[in-house]
């Protein structure tokens, strides 16, 4: 058969055969049928030696052209099939990043810790340092160093949680206030001293609307030369206005604490009614809210920690964190802080 006719027929039928290959494996079969050892193109190449000399150049040139065109068709189809396969794979394995991922609920800082952080920030802004100490404490630091005599009612087991540990004479207990840290700090630091002490306290209180056996307190201590009572009032006035609002005023009422002399209770003006509403649900018409205890540090406390009461003076105060949070947010029961009720907690995210 005429080799030219064979090659013309092959090149004419090749595009349809190549395009019909729907996969790389099918294309391999088509390529073998067009260019393989058993193909008509291979038969023409093997028969070149038997052709007349005048026909051989023409057939040779046509054979090269057909081979090149067939290789081009197969290569183009192979590239297209590879792209299509890759697209299909990417589609089947893709992740739609536009879809929202599964979100787990995030926690938030508890209102008690929020309150502690805010109060501490106020005093750090005044130059105070933050101090901490052990919650399991010695009676010496919790009571004796703070001028609380052995006969004081607070030292009874009905008020204080004692630990059955160590030498009974050491009287190890869960601290009833954060004030022991003040004594420990003064023992290891020379004046001037300006510290705030946030932390947990423990007392044998029955749980009710205003009491918990475990609660939080922030103590403050300032010791320096020439500190007077008006410094205490000015400091607490600044704190009250920062925490409750710039229109807040304060008043001091005489009181007694073993570790301060003179001592006072600090009241803040009602931020809800300014004392103008006899039916105010926050202050019940009193106009002021009892907030914290304070006073000038008793000289006996200075002597217990090795300070010279003739050279320095100072003031101290202690405030309940739960009390601060309840007053500012109008919370009617301290038990809300420990109930783990998300309806309550999520209001303060």
Task: Give an overview of the whole structure.
This protein is 40% helix and 19% strand. The protein has 349 residues and is an alpha+beta fold. A hairpin with a 2-residue loop joins strand 6 and strand 7 (260-269). The chain is rod-shaped and about 135 Å long.
Q: What characteristics describe this protein?
A:
single chain, 349 residues, alpha+beta, BirA Bifunctional Protein, domain 2, 2 domains, 7-stranded mixed beta sheet, 11 helices, 9 strands
Compact overview of the structure:
With 349 residues, the protein is of the alpha+beta class. Helix content is 40%, strand content 19%.
State the name of the first-level CATH class of the largest domain. Alpha Beta
- Total E-strand runs: 9
What is the helix tally?
A: 11
- Give the terminus-to-terminus CA distance: 91 Å
Radius of gyration over all CA atoms, rounded: 45 Å
């Amino acid at each position: 058969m005429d080799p030219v006719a064979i090659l013309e027929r092959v090149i004419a039928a090749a595009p349809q055969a190549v395009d019909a290959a729907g996969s790389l494996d099918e294309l391999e079969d088509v390529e073998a049928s067009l260019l393989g050892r058993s193909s008509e193109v291979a038969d023409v190449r093997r028969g070149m030696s038997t052709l007349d000399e005048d026909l051989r150049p023409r057939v040779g040139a046509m054979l090269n052209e057909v081979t090149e065109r067939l290789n081009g068709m197969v290569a183009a189809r192979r590239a297209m099939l590879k792209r299509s396969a890759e697209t299909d794979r990417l589609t089947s394995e893709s992740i739609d990043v536009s879809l929202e991922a599964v979100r787990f609920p995030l926690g938030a800082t508890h209102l008690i810790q929020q309150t502690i952080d805010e109060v501490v920030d106020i005093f750090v802004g005044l130059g105070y340092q933050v101090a901490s100490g052990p919650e399991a404490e010695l009676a010496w630091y919790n009571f004796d160093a703070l001028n609380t005599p052995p006969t004081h009612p607070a030292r009874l087991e009905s008020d204080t949680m004692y630990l059955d540990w160590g030498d009974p004479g050491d009287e190890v207990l869960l601290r009833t206030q954060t004030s022991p840290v003040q004594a420990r700090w003064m023992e290891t630091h020379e004046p001037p001293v300006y510290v705030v002490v946030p932390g947990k306290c423990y007392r044998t209180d029955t749980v009710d609307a205003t009491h918990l056996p475990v609660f939080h307190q922030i103590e403050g201590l300032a010791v320096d030369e020439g500190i007077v009572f008006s410094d205490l009032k000015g400091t607490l006035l600044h704190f009250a206005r920062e925490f409750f609002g710039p229109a807040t005023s304060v008043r001091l009422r005489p009181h007694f604490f073993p570790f301060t002399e003179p001592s006072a209770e600090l009241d803040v003006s009602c931020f809800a009614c300014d004392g103008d509403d006899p039916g105010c649900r926050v202050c019940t018409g009193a106009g002021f809210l009892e907030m914290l205890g304070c006073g000038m540090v008793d000289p006996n406390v200075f002597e217990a920690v090795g300070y010279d009461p003739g050279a320095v003076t100072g003031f101290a105060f202690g405030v309940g964190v739960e009390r601060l949070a309840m007053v500012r947010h109008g919370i009617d029961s301290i038990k809300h802080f420990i109930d783990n009720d998300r309806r309550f907690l999520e209001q303060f995210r």
